[in-house]
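C-alpha cells in:
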C-alpha cells in the first residue's frame, strides 16, 4: 500500500477550526476516548505558564510528587510535559488542602510503570540524542543523571529518577517570574539540596517544604 503526504504543518496555540471539525467528524463515527481539542487553551503549555505566587509553586511540586508516588517513574518531567489549570477537582482535592485549586496532568512518554507482575517501560537506549546535548543544558544533564542512576537498565525500578526531575522543577521555579520573597528563594534552594538525600518522590513528601499541603499521606 502506498500512502501520500498532502502537507505538513507545525501548529501552536489553539486548534484551527478545520482541525476541530475534522476531529468532531471522526469522533461522531468512532467515539473517541479523548477530549475535544477545542477545550484546550492557547497557553496550556506550562513552559509559558506564569506561576502567580509561592504557594502555587509549592502546590505544583506537591502534585508532581503525588503522581510519582505510586510506583510510577515519569523519566521526562520537564515543564513541557505538564498541563495545569486553576480549578478545584475531585482528583486534586483528595490530596490537597481545599485552598489550593490546581489540577495536574502529566504526559507519559518516557515512563516506567508496574502493574501486578507486568512492567511497562520505554527503552531509552534506543534514543540516545537527548543524552548528547551540551553539558550546560539542564534538561540534558537530568537525562544523563537518570542514565547514571539506572545504569541503562530502563526496565528496572529506580524511583530516584523522580527525585532528579523534582530537582529540575525546583531549579526552574527559581528562575520563573512570579512574586517570591528572599525567604521563598532560600526555601527552594534548601529543598533542592535536601532532595539529594531522598531515594524516591514518596520519601520527599515528608520534607518540611510540603508541610500543610497534603491532606493525607501517600
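Residues out:
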Amino acid at each position: 500500500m502506498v500512502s501520500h503526504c498532502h502537507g505538513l504543518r507545525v501548529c501552536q496555540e489553539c486548534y484551527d477550526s478545520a482541525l476541530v471539525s475534522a476531529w468532531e467528524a471522526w469522533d461522531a463515527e468512532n467515539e473517541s476516548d479523548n477530549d475535544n481539542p477545542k477545550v484546550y487553551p492557547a497557553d496550556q503549555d506550562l513552559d509559558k505558564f506564569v506561576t502567580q505566587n509561592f504557594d502555587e509553586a509549592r502546590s505544583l511540586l506537591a502534585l508532581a510528587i503525588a503522581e510519582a508516588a505510586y510506583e510510577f517513574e515519569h523519566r521526562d518531567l520537564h515543564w513541557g510535559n505538564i498541563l495545569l489549570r486553576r480549578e478545584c477537582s475531585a482528583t486534586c482535592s483528595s490530596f490537597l488542602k481545599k485552598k489550593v485549586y490546581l489540577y495536574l496532568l502529566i504526559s507519559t512518554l518516557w515512563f516506567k510503570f508496574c502493574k501486578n507482575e507486568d512492567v511497562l517501560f520505554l527503552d531509552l537506549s534506543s534514543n540516545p540524542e537527548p543524552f548528547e546535548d551540551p553539558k550546560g543544558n539542564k534538561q540534558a544533564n537530568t537525562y544523563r543523571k537518570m542514565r547514571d542512576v539506572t545504569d541503562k537498565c530502563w526496565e528496572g525500578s529506580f524511583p530516584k529518577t523522580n527525585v532528579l526531575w523534582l530537582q529540575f522543577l525546583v531549579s526552574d521555579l527559581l528562575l520563573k517570574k512570579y512574586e517570591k520573597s528572599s525567604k521563598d528563594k532560600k526555601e527552594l534552594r534548601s529543598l533542592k539540596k535536601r532532595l539529594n538525600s531522598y531515594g524516591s518522590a514518596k520519601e520527599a513528601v515528608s520534607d518540611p517544604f510540603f508541610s500543610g499541603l497534603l491532606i493525607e499521606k501517600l
